[in-house]
Amino acid sequence: MANQLLKGKKGIIFGALDPNSIAWKVALKAHAEGAVFTLTNAPVAMRMGAINELAATTGSQVIPADATINEDLENLFNKSIEILGGKVDFVLHSIGMSPNVRKNIPYTQTNYDFFHKTLDISALSLHRTLQTAMKIDAINEWGSVVALTYIASQRVFPDYNDMADAKSLLESITRSFGYQYGKAKKVRVNTISQSPTKTTAGSGVKGFDGFFNYADQMSPLGNASAESCADYCISMFSDLTKMVTMQNLFHDGGFSYTGVSAEVIEKFNTI
Questions:
Q1: Is 161 part of a structural domain of the chain?
Q2: Is 104 exposed, middle or buried (0-12, 13-18, 19+ CB in 10 A)?
Q3: The domain that contains 125 carries what CATH number?
Q4: Which residues of the chain carry a pLDDT beneath 70?
Q5: What is the pLDDT of residue 209?
Q6: Cα-atom radius of gyration of the chain, to the nearest Å?
Q7: Whole-prediction pTM value?
Q8: Which of 195, 192, 262 is nearest to 223 (CA)?
Q9: Secondary structure letter of residue 196 according to DSSP
Q10: In this predicted model, what pLDDT tens digit does every residue of 196-228 receive, in sequence order?
Q11: What is the pLDDT of residue 77?
Q12: Which residue, among 28, 88, 40, has the nearest Cα to 64 in the 3D structure?
C-alpha cells in the first residue's frame, strides 16, 4: 500500500529496460508513492526494451541519454528540470554492461578495450552523472542518488568477470563523490548491494543460476526480490533516510554476513 513517501519529489530513473528490470519496478513504486520523474536509457538499450510502455503507465517522459557522454547527461538534466518544473530530488543509477561478459571472455584473458567500456559504462557513468548534476546544480539539497551494485565488488565470484572490478570502482566513487556532494549541497550518494536478481542483465552472467541458488540457500531470509529492492530504493529517496550517505547498503537477505548455512553444509555432508 502506497504511503505517498515521495509526494512532491522529482527524479530521474536510469536503466529501465523491461518489466524484469529493478529500475522498472522502482519507477512503478515511485509513481505510486507520489513522485514525478523522467526515464532515461542509452538509445541502443531503448531499442531493445519497452520503456515507452513504462512512460505511459507512469505519466513520464523519456529522454534518451548515453551515460558515457557528458553532453547527453547535460541535456538529460536540463530537459528533466524543464519538464518537471524544477531541480530533481532523486536519481537512480541502474547501469551496467560488460562486453567481456557478453562474449564469454575469461577474466584472465580480458580484452582491455572491452574492459575500458565496462568501466566507462558501469562505473565512470556514475561519476559523470554526479559531476554533471553538480556542475549545473541539478539536485536539490538533501537529494538522494542511489546506484545498484553487487557483492562481487568485495568477494570473488569468478564468472562475474570484470564487472566485479567495475562495481568496486562504482562503490569507491560513491564514497569519494558522496563526501564532496554532501559537503557542497547536502546531496547524499549511496549504493545498494542487491541479491542476484533475475533481470535481463543479471541473467546474462555465466553461471547465473548457480549464483542465484547458492545465495538463496546461504541467506537466512532468502534472496531479496527486485520488488523488495525497489521498496528499499524508495526509502532511500525519501526524507526518512536524510542522514545516510556514502554507504554500501546490503539488501541481500543476510547473505553478506552469513559464513555458511545449514542447507549448504547439508549438501556437502551428502557428498
A1: yes
A2: exposed
A3: 3.40.50.720
A4: 1, 49, 200-206, 270-271
A5: 82
A6: 18
A7: 0.94
A8: 195
A9: P
A10: 988 766 655 667 788 788 899 999 999 999 999
A11: 98
A12: 40
Contact 119, 153 (CB under 8 A): no
How many structural domains comprise the chain? 1
Q: Rounded CA gap, 84 and 61, in Å?
A: 10
Determine contact, residues 9/18, Cβ cutoff 8 Å. no
Which residue has 520503456 as its cell numbers? 51
* Helix locations, 33-88, DSSP H: 43-48, 51-58, 70-84
d(CA 88, CA 147): 16
Name the helix (H) or strand (E) containing 215: helix 208-218
Cα–Cα distance list, 172 to 32, 175, 193, 249 (Å): 32, 5, 13, 13
Question: What is the percentage of the chain residues whose pLDDT exceeds 70?
Answer: 96
DSSP string, 85-111: TS-EEEEEE-----HHHHTT--GGG--
Flag whether 5 is in a domain: no
pLDDT tens for 29-44 read: 999 999 999 999 998 8
User: How is residue 217 written as a grid cell?
Assistant: 540457500
- Domain assignment of residue 202, yes or no: yes
Q: Are 21 and 94 a contacting pair, CB within 8 Å?
A: yes
Task: Specify if 3 maps to a domain.
Answer: no
* Domain of 255, in residue numbers: 10-269
Residue 232 CA to residue 236 CA, distance in Å, equals: 6
Rounded Cα gap, residues 1 and 82, in angstroms:
31
Task: At 136, list the grid cell.
Answer: 549545473
Euclidean distance between CA atoms 212 and 196, whole angstroms: 5
Quick one: cell of 12? 530521474
Spell out a b/e string for 48-76, using b for 16 or more CB atoms within 10 Å of the CB, else e. ebebeebbeebebebbbbbbbeeebbbeb
Angle at 170 between CA 195 and CA 31, to 5 degrees: 60
